[in-house]
Amino acid sequence: DAGVTQSPTHLIKTRGQQVTLRCSPKSGHDTVSWYQQALGQGPQFIFQYYEEEERQRGNFPDRFSGHQFPNYSSELNVNALLLGDSALYLCASSLRSSSTDTQYFGPGTRLTVL
Amino acid sequence: GESVGLHLPTLSVQEGDNSIINCAYSNSASDYFIWYKQESGKGPQFIIDIRSNMDKRQGQRVTVLLNKTVKHLSLQIAATQPGDSAVYFCAERPNTNAGKSTFGDGTTLTVKP
Question: Which residues of A touch B (CB under 8 A)?
Answer without folding.
Answer: 4, 31, 33, 35, 40-45, 48, 50, 55-56, 58, 90, 92, 94, 96, 99-108
